[in-house]
């Protein structure tokens, strides 16, 4: 993949302030939940609302998302708040539905990035569109697999690309749900400095209390933004409850990051 400046241009349209902040629940649960969170975020630094509609759960039997119905809620949230929207797509059918409902940014999840066949199908389904696509790192610490997914999209003429660092799974339990392995995104950034790099502190942490520190590290490393799971009643969330923070906490974290930056 050539190192094209074009890769960065989309960022300006989505980033009203630096860094780009994407926030919203792990999963869209009900219309009321999506709209409540969107309204609580609308005057924050978050310019893009996230919500998972199709949820790839590692083990069966957990909540697997509300499906296409949730896309209407995202659309309504966009109309009411002016926020842009993003959701995960894991196959060409998801892409088709997300395009139909005017989702602004599509992201490819960690369990999809590991599969070149599916990534290729998604890339083919996106051909000819000018959507922004963010590629999460694969669950396993494999830079080539991550880059390979980006290259497949780039080859399908998707030029508005970015990557999301969500940490890497390890068999031993550490303080992280997924180890950050900061050297891997740094290597990617060195190879492709024009590819926007976004931190997902929520899936790295798996808990609330280290979200701030992870965001701080990302800013110190010149990341372009972050995607933070945010819920109005995090403890009652239908997925990833332990790591979600309230919109109020997100606003406080952003303030604290700014104060730190001014001091340093
Ligand atoms: C998510 O963003 O809610 C998600 C399922 O993420 P990941 O693909 O990083 O596990
Ligand atoms: Mn999640």
Adjacency order of strands in the biggest sheet? 1-2-3-4-5-6-7-8
Write the CATH fold name.
TIM Barrel
Poorly predicted runs are none
- The CATH homologous superfamily is called Aldolase class I
How large, in whole angstroms, is the Cα Rg?
17 Å
User: How would you state the average pLDDT, rounded?
Assistant: 94
Enzyme class: isomerase
EC number: 5.4.99.5
Keywords: Transferase
Protein name: chorismate mutase
Describe the structure concisely:
Helices cover 42% and strands 14% of the residues.
Give me some keywords for this one.
single chain, about 260 residues, alpha/beta, TIM Barrel, eight-stranded parallel beta barrel, 8 strands, about 40% helix, about 15% strand, binds phosphoenolpyruvate, binds manganese (II) ion
Describe this structure in words.
One of its GO terms (molecular function) is chorismate mutase activity. This is chorismate mutase. It is an enzyme of class 5 (isomerase). It is a single chain. With 264 residues, the protein is α/β, with parallel strands linked by helices. It has a single domain (6-263), classed as Aldolase class I (TIM Barrel, Alpha-Beta Barrel). It is built from eleven helices and eight strands. It has helices at residues 6-14, 31-41, 69-81, 92-100, 110-113, 116-126, 143-155, 183-191, 201-205, 211-220, 247-263; strands at residues 20-24, 46-50, 84-88, 105-108, 132-136, 161-165, 197-199, 225-229. An eight-stranded parallel barrel has the order 1-2-3-4-5-6-7-8, surrounded by six helices. Helix 4 (92-100) runs parallel beside helix 6 and helix 6 runs parallel beside helix 7 (143-155). The model has no long low-confidence stretch (mean pLDDT 94). Residues 26, 229, 239-240 line the site of manganese (II) ion.
